[in-house]
Amino acid sequence: YEETVKEPRFLTSFYFGSFRPVINSEFTIIADKDIHIDFKKFNMDTFKYEFTQEEKKGKIHYRFTAKNVPEFDSENDAPNIRYYVPHVIPIIRTYTYKGKEIPVLRNVADLYHWYYSLLKNINQEISPELKALTDSITKGKTSETDITKAIYYWVQKNIKYVAFEEGLGGFVPREANEVCEKRYGDCKDNSSILVAMLRYKGIRAYYTWIGTRSIPYTYEEVPTPISDNHMICTVEIDGKYYYLDATGNHHPLGLPSSFIQGKEALIGIDSVHYDIGVVPIVPPNQNAFIDSVTISVSGDKITGKGKAQINGYLKVQTVYSLEGVKNKTEEKDIVKRDIEKGNNKFYLNDYKIINQSIDSPLYFTYDFTIEDYLQEVDDEVYLNLNLEQEASQIKIRKTKKYDLELDNTLQTLTLVEFEIPNGYELTYLPPNSSKSSDFMEYAISYTRRGNKIIYKHEFAYKKLLIKKAQFEEWNNIVKSISKQYREVLIFKKIQ
Questions:
Q1: Are 148 and 221 in contact (CB under 8 A)?
Q2: Does the pLDDT at position 373 exceed 70?
Q3: In the chain, where does the domain assigned CATH 2.60.40.3140 lie?
Q4: Strands 230-237 and 240-244, how do they pair?
Q5: Across residues 210-221, what is the average pLDDT?
Q6: What is the band of 167 on the pLDDT scale with cuts at 50, 70, 90?
Q7: How far apart are CA 182 and CA 475, in angstroms?
Q8: 112-278 domain in CATH 3.90.25.10?
Q9: Is the pLDDT of residue 165 over 70?
């Protein structure tokens, strides 16, 4: 097929491979010799291809060819294909017209100045209605942080996300007044109303272009619109950047959308100046699930009371799920999903959900029963305090071809307090165990305090991307955890 591109900044990538074998892969660009074209190559260090450049009748023919390209598998838990499929990105740097060199995309500055030209005329005047709304939302707020939170949380809750992508419409935000009136918009529109409201209250707020984690390029590598596919608002408070994405919901200030973690952000300061920030990767302790339970035994049954604290992206995901329930049965199923333990005879007797604000953790308090959990042989009783064993199910399959990508970091802490029943003595307390790597760690400990056993299990994902070379170490840690999960307390009846 042939493609005619009228906007010189919109040249698209060419991928040599596909999810099917390719016998012949060819990419040709024919351009006037006054056009300076550069090619950025990715994942082609060991890829066999040919490149030719020749002039024919005043035109330059750039031609890439490759033969017998093998198929590339699709893996849901791998990074986007841009990370491993060979491809080239053509970039028009400049062209010459009437003897004068015209810049197009020589560098990041050229890209930014074009971006700025698309939005420089919007939000010239904020309507009285939007001003009044902003004043009411921020009434009584005095600090920059509190004003920013009030506006950000209002936009998340009240402006519905609807995607619009058509030509330059995919690059130009709509007026904040219009977005406010209609109560919906795409990522650019959400950024438009955020910037307008925040600036009206004196907050340093900036339009920001950013690529999601599906895009592997830096702006320096590829200073074209290919490097981003999203717009957010960046706020500067006390010299620190906060990245506000109101297309989602339930995100407190300081918790960016998970899909932009670690990504470069092109921050528009003014008509001349810009900055490139990096969205932080949220550390495991901010995505913590902390579950504390007290259990007792009756026959072969366990009864217990617990309190779970859910933070960060884990909270966002759970609150989204709870918002979609139609009845109490569905609500109970979601709570059970998050705190189920023991075996398939776990029964959630009662629960309470505590969700005070967007800035505080989500809590579940609950009581439960697990039937047929204890094992008794002769005069000995066996009790496994590893009530949560999800970490044993994350072994990476041997057939996996590409790196492993995780949605977010994670930390879990499980505390179990158990009192030794009257008439029994403890004869075996499992050993403590721990392992740590750059990307994962766990620790399991047992402590006796008088007649009580305190079990503690810590686990964490510390990275978003696990390289294939690390799979063996990952699986060895999982194997060690799985072995520890088989450890049990042993009690004996006192004669």
A1: no
A2: yes
A3: 8-103
A4: antiparallel
A5: 98
A6: low
A7: 51
A8: no
A9: no
Question: Can you tell me whether residue 125 is helix, strand or coil?
Answer: coil
What mean pLDDT comes out for the span 249-277?
98
- CATH 2.60.120.1130: which residues of the chain? 284-493
Instruction: Output the CATH code of domain 284-493.
Output: 2.60.120.1130
Lay out the sheet containing 346-354: strands in order across. 346-354, 362-370, 301-310, 288-298, 410-419, 452-461, 440-449, 433-436
What CA–CA distance (Å, rounded) separates 240 from 416? 40
> What's the CA gap between 59 and 249, in Å, rounded?
52
Residue in the structure block whose two tokens are 């023919």: 61
State the pLDDT at residue 300.
85
- Estimate to the nearest angstrom the gap between the alpha carbon of 184 and the chain centroid: 23
Q: Which two tokens stand for residue 320?
A: 């989204």
CA-CA distance, 196 to 424, in Å (whole number)? 69
Mean pLDDT of the chain: 95
Output the pTM of the full model: 0.94
pLDDT at position 121 over 90: yes
Instruction: Write out the two tokens for 479.
Output: 């194997």
CATH 3.10.620.30: which residues of the chain?
Answer: 112-278
Residue 166 has pLDDT above 70, yes or no: no
CATH number of 8-103: 2.60.40.3140
**pLDDT of 170 above 90:** no
Q: Is the pLDDT of residue 460 over 90?
A: yes
| Bridge partners, 237 (sequence order) | 240
Q: Which residue type occupies 32? A: D
Contact (Cβ atoms closer than 8 angstroms) between residue 459 and residue 394:
no
CA angle 118, 121, 125 (to 5 degrees): 145
DSSP string over 166-211: SGGGGT-PPPHHHHHHHTEE-HHHHHHHHHHHHHHTT-EEEEEEE-
Query: Taken in order 327, 328, 333, 335, is the CA torsion positive or negative?
Result: positive
Amino acid at 363: Y
In this predicted structure, what is the pLDDT of residue 379? Answer: 85
